[in-house]
Protein: Nitrate/nitrite transporter
Amino acid sequence: MPTLDTTGRTLTGWNPEEPENWSSSIAWRTLAITTFSLMLGFTVWFLPSAIAPRLNEIGFALSKSQLYWLTSMPGLSCGLLRLVYMFLPATIGTRKMIGISSLLYLLPMLGWFFAVQNPSTSYGVLLGLAFACGIGAATFSGYMPSTGFFFPKRLSGTALGLQGGLGNIGAGIIQLAAPFLMSTSLFGLTWVERHSEGAPIVVNATVFFLPWSVLAALLAFACLKDVPVKANIKEQLDIFGNVDTWLMTILYIMTFGIFSGFAAQTALIINNNYGAASALADAGLTGLPKGASYAFLGTFIGSLLRFAWGPLCDRFGGAIWTFVSAIGMAATLGFCGWQLTMIDSAGDFKVFMAGLLGMFFFAGVGNAATFKQMPMIMPKRQAGGAIGFTAAVASLGPFLVGVALAAMPASTFFLACAAYCALCAVICWIRYARPNAKRPG
Structure:
């Protein structure tokens, strides 16, 4: 094994499993910068879900179906782009991937900055901008495998949990900040005309995050290095011959696909079933909840649990926690579906919301656990590719959940998701979690 040399842009002699050929400072520095960039990426991904619930308040006239589709498009584009990003760590390397991606975030941010100024902006343009936001979380399928190259297996749960959890918090940050940033003035940007007399000046839903993306790009180009893990695209396709790639994809659709899908649609689910667009409002009830006020809660809970549970996954293994997650998600989703069939008053919202936040709790546990499993049950390069692929498929969550909610009653969809989680519990127990399982992880 060559001696570790960290002086060049590409590390030589790098092997995280051998202490003398590993640098913890380089590993943790890489984690910090890539996580910072990933957090900004998730703010881009969830821009439409944060902005859409308020568009009609500031002069747009969009239907319920149009709003669901608007918040669904980033999931579709993210899933497609992740199929590209999963190959980048072993082809172009970490440094270029993080730096260029951070600059790409600027494009949808600037697009939405100008789009919300004019309520006559066409729906087609809004859909295009929503689609462009998929680049934000598409990077996840490159960033996470890249991080896996820098850490030994004993720390993989902690490292990937921190990156995934803190990165996901970006979605909560934009959902929490967007309502404020859309109706206030920053840096003297008061030159935009009001939509109507007495309406707020809409300028800052995205522009606040622009300089941070530039900073992330500068840090990446100046401070990051590449690891000597290289493979062409054909070589990386061997992950599809491993049955665990497919089974872990099924499980990650449960933990992240459902999590991200419901996180993106939380505000609209609340508005359409308990808020201003619900039957309760049609009946003349007042004091109904506003979805935008609650949208960030599930994202924060799931994200915090994702990195908080990383050390527990390192200690006890990921499989058992994935199993616990599946059982918990099945129970809470079933409870929410049942609650949606018996809405009688505004007070029912609190009970439903408690169940929904419980689902986000178990999803956060599962997100940490599944990413601990893959490095343990697969070779390092295959694990990186599998992480990228499973993340690509699961990122379709916001798109599929949005389409489903536009096509069927919310209660029916919640109950269908509960049944899917129950199936995942069976798969996880038989293959990974039971005593003497074939692939314990």
Notes: The CA atoms of residues 88 and 370 lie 22 Å apart. The radius of gyration is 22 Å. The longest helix spans residues 243-273.
